Amino acid sequence: MLNRDEILRRTGNGLDIFKHYIPGEWRVGRNFHNPLYEDRKASCNIYFDRRSGTYRMKDFGDDTFSGDCFDILGKIRGLDCNSSGDFIEILKTVNRDLSLGLDENDRSFIVSVSLPGDKPRKQPENSFMPNPIPAPKKSKPHSILQQTFSAKELSFWAQYGITEELLKTYRVVSLKEFRSENGDGKPFVFYSTDAEPLFGYQGKRHVKIYRPLSEIRFLYGGLLPDSYCFGLEQLPARGDSLFITGGEKDVLSLAAKGYYAICFNSETSRIPQNTVKKLSCRFKHVILLYDTDKTGLESSAKHAQQLAGLDVKRLVLPLAGTKTEKDVSDWFRLGNTRENFNRLFLEFLDGLYAETMAILKPCEIDFDCPPAKSEMLVSVNGVPLGTQGNLFGITGGEGTGKSHFAGSLIAGTVRERDDGIDTLGTSVQRNTDNKAVLLYDTEQSDSQLYKNISGILKRGNLEAMPACFKAYCLTGMSRKERLQAIVQSMDKFHYQFGGIQMVVIDGIADLVRCANDEAESVGLIDELYRLAGIYKTCIVCVLHFIPNGMKLRGHLGSELQRKAAAILSIEKDDNPQVSVVKALKVRDGSPLDVPLIQFSWNREREMHACLGEKPREEKEKRKETELAGVARTVFAQKRFHTYAELCGQIQSLLDVRERTAKSYIRFMLDREIILRDSVNESHFVIGRIR
Fold it and tell me: How far is residue 313's CA from residue 335's CA, in Å, rounded to a whole number?
């Protein structure tokens, strides 16, 4: 039976209702800012009124927000508690939103309604006063009987693109019957029929009942947690966008189209800030995507304001807001596709980044309109090489040929055919899906960058610049603007081209004020590594440092070496006409086992050409020389080392795995770079160093 007294009994005398509809971290008896309007002074209070035995709210700033839980809900929803019809609607709203399970078809609740204008009941003398601390929630007794999905039920879900496999993934079941008890402890049962199907969203200690074609659409059994969040367990560790929707069906509709989504118990439910804070570290965007009816629009606007500090955004679908056209499920049911939604989201991003893209537009290199000739300056170019979701570092001194090596890799990425082109000894995967290929240059002039792009197109047998290849000269921007422009344009191009194949940042040291500033260096590399993971791309970081043996100098170099999947160094050979590419770090394996690649300028082809690998003897000689330098460093401060100490020192110094460090120890023993101590064979000492 649905009445005022029964609802108060089930909601801790109204406190649960205040907790559900009044967001924020307020406490009973303490003044707080009213979140329902622009409250500049904390003069709002929720307290226990012993006279009426209920919780009430008093707002000294705006007295229209004073009253019991039903008054406040009526104020939020635009309903009048003094109207019998509106008050009944308020009771129904509480029953549904808090999943109380009261029978709304029992019309006897009308005579039980106590309207706000009525005199409060007097408490009998010596009667027990309700405890202001609400009692803990009790598990709602229930039983369910599952069945296989019928063809008609699957057809219901299919209109939203939701498959049986997806329903299984999200633990959605078809129910033959659901048994529970109403507020008076009387048992009731719902049966599934063709006209009124019955579904269940299963949790660990609860089940939420969904009856899409019935008057009573939602019920629950068991103990529904305060932190109820549907779809949370199905999220990946990292992703680009996460949508917070109004209901479970919307989560499933988005998942069917390949998007990540969650929902809380209802659109008016409080969204835990701690949960959103954790998710915002895993996803580039967290977007509210609620219904377009009055309740959905008001709720999403309120949540967006409350979560603005966590950069939560709000997207409103172009729907009429009617009963059959109000949510993202309806959007897809009406025939819209993933491509339609992508276009809508791209327009949303265009609005967010309009100023940045306007500033960035003059920096874009237009190959058909060459810039004016200007004096050539010293340049350092980058090499895009590595695996998806990782950073790849390129380093070397001035004039070693890094720009031409980088150009060969970009040419291999944007080439139109698989015909053989010279990629200077590397294998490059062709960009068959026409994803974005981005080049940001922070050091060269626009004229020099234009010249380099001409060489890239010539090497790739291209007559025009592909639409997916974007190159920007950022020398005219401040260091802070450069990083912001890179981050936001990457996000835009990710959606515009359906992904990012490769990103080259030519001169990452020009994104910070000082490459030896530890905090700046760590922050920059962490941000680039996060972006590589979100967009599943390889970000090539070019650092103009001359390495010291197998280590990069400076805090920026050390941090890059620690996070990157691989580091290449391009150096001049004994013959200054030849450049040598050698590995400083390879995450899966030993860099000293990677072949030494040679390349030099070919006058006939007017470009650099690969000369093949250096002989094996050269590779062994390089390995011995490099490890001799490592031994000097390790034994400089301590004469003796145990095997475990030596292995740990090599792992720390070179940032390699244990098995690689052990292979280095075996090599140093074979070449007598280190020796076993004659007194204690468990100790090692430095041997002969040529």
Answer: 25
- For the stretch 307-346, pLDDT in tens is 988 999 999 999 999 988 999 999 999 999 999 999 999 9
pLDDT at 373 over 70: no
Q: What is the pLDDT of residue 177?
A: 94
Residue 118, pLDDT > 50, answer no
Contact present, 594 and 408 (Cβ < 8 Å): no
Q: What is the dihedral of CA 121, 122, 124, 127, to 10 degrees?
A: 80
Structure tokens given for 123:
């408490």
In Å, what is the CA distance from 491 to each residue of 352, 476, 484, 670? 11, 22, 11, 51
pLDDT of 121 over the 70 cut: no
Are 244 and 299 in contact, with CB atoms under 8 Å apart? no
CB 382 within 8 A of CB 394: yes
Quickly tell me which residue has 């103009």 as its tokens: 544
Phi and psi based region of residue 640 (left: phi greater than 0; alpha: psi -120 to 50; beta: remaining): beta
Distances from the Cα of 284 to the Cα of 301, 336, 391, 449, 527, angstroms: 20, 24, 18, 31, 11
Q: Decide: 183 and 106 in contact? Cβ < 8 Å.
A: no
CB atoms within 10 A of CB 590: 19
Secondary structure of residue 445 in the 3-state scheme: coil
Residues 686, 642: Cα–Cα separation, whole Å: 12
SS3 567: strand
Distance between CA atoms of 62 and 47, rounded to whole angstroms?
Answer: 17
Which amino acid makes up residue 432? Answer: T
**Paired tokens of 304:** 């967006």
Residues in Cβ contact with 292 at an 8 Å cutoff, skipping those fewer than 6 apart: 316, 317, 319, 320, 321, 325, 326, 327
Place of tokens 């996460």: 242
Spatial separation of the C-alpha atoms in residues 394 and 381, rounded to whole Å: 9
Q: Could you give phi then psi for residue 640, rounded to 5 degrees?
A: -115, 150
pLDDT over 70 for what percent of the chain?
Answer: 90
Write out pLDDT tens, residues 558-615.
Answer: 899 888 888 888 888 878 888 988 888 877 666 776 778 888 988 888 888 888 887 7
E-strand ranges in 234-345 read: 239-245, 260-263, 283-289, 313-314
Instruction: Answer whether 145's CB lies under 8 Å from 174's CB.
Output: no
Report CA-CA distances (Å) from 474 to 255, 363, 442, 505. Answer: 38, 6, 5, 10
- Coil/strand/helix, residue 570: strand
What's the predicted TM-score (pTM) here?
0.56
Backbone angles phi, psi at 30, to 5 degrees: -110, 140
Q: Let me know if 199 is exposed, middle or buried by CB neighbors in 10 A (0-12, 13-18, 19+).
A: buried
Element (H, E) at 273: helix 273-282
Q: How many residues does the chain have?
A: 690
User: Dihedral, CA atoms, 617, 622, 624, 628, nearest 10 degrees?
Assistant: 160
- Name the pairing type of β-strands 239-245 and 283-289: parallel
Q: Say whether pLDDT at 222 is over 80.
A: yes
Q: What angle in degrees, to the nearest 10, is found between the helix axes of 518-535 and 479-496? A: 10
DSSP assignment of 197-266, as one string?
Answer: --EEEE-SSEEEEE-TTSSS-EEEEE---TT--BTGGG--SSEEEEEEESSHHHHHHHHHTT-EEEE-SS
Of residues 126 and 676, more confidently modeled: 676
Which segments within 397-450 are labelled E, that is strand?
Answer: 436-441
